[in-house]
Amino acid sequence: MTASKKSPYWSSLASSLTPYIPGEQPRKDKFIKLNTNENPYPPSPKAVEAINKTAGEVLRLYPDPSSTALREAVAERWGIKSEEVFIGNGSDEILAFAFAAFFEAQNNPAEPLLFPNITYSFYPVYAALWDLAFKTPVLNTDFAIDPNDYKQSSGGVIFPNPNAPTGRALDQKTIVDIAKAQEKVKKVLIVDEAYIAFSQGPGMGSMIPFIKENPNLLIVRTLSKEASLAGLRSAYACGNAELIEGLYRLKDSFNSYPLDRLAQAASIAAILDTAYYDEINHRICQTRERVQAALNTLGFKVIPSQANFIFASPPGITDSGAAGFLAALREKGILVRHFKQSEIINYLRISIGTDVDMDTFLAACKEIIF
Fold this sequence. Notes:
Layout: H1 12-16, E1 32-33, H2 45-54, H3 68-78, E2 85-88, H4 91-102, E3 113-114, H5 122-129, E4 134-135, E5 157-160, H6 172-183, E6 189-192, E7 217-222, E8 235-238, H7 241-251, H8 261-272, H9 274-297, E9 301-303, E10 309-313, H10 323-331, E11 334-335, E12 337-338, E13 348-351, H11 355-369
Helix pairs in contact: 2-8, 3-8, 4-7, 9-11
């Protein structure tokens, strides 16, 4: 919902905010949706079964406010302790709590928070919400994060790995080095792993196994992409028990019942069904590699991706950047994402759909170009 002007009923905080704008969610099914990074394959049948079993008389009762069974499932999945797990209503909620729990407001003496100049656009929104000073180190010319930018003294560090919307990722050793540098000044490093399930190659993967040796490292995961549960809203964070307690202090001061019974039941089943998700997410990676190669052949400038999307600049860019190509795809019933930020105005973010979806997308690109 938007308003044409500020309301006299709003607080000064509400008036000052510039909210995050999500990708378009069309009301009709006439579009192929490649604009919101949803998983194109259905959730685990075990997750659906868990919802059906839970959807009964028990819904009259409040859910477990601590999501105990779900925390234990996450701990089992990763070989950690349940007190090292936080459960939230989607990763955006966890991130909102984390910004408040670990980064100091400007009215307290603090160095600025650090995150990349091109990254998840909710970060500056949260910084404004919690009145945090921040700096945005510039990505390298190939859209990679420069690790040295995050080894300096700071008020804390956050970045997605892989980064969004570029899809580039840092290896585990590099992230450990950043965590150790921030630990020297007792600041938290948050790694937002919304897309890590699609990261491949030596030294790549989740940082959860490294939380024991790095007490300032907080890992945030969502089930929206990797577990095909974007419509459910479930996520978790892993870190030192002190970090997790800090998050629960925020949660229990805001909403003591964030995750409902259906979401908890489905999430437990999904987290433990690793075989199913390993198979479908590997399929997405294979499709991604095929589509990247095809786009290169068509003359796109493609940034190598470790996520379930591709960041690419189409040929024939005009003064409006890639907006014209975005509009042409929409006319053909295909939605992709375009960002107006000047550094990336020539690029489109293309979510990976099914092979049939991506073949339709590639055919449309050929028609537009030729």
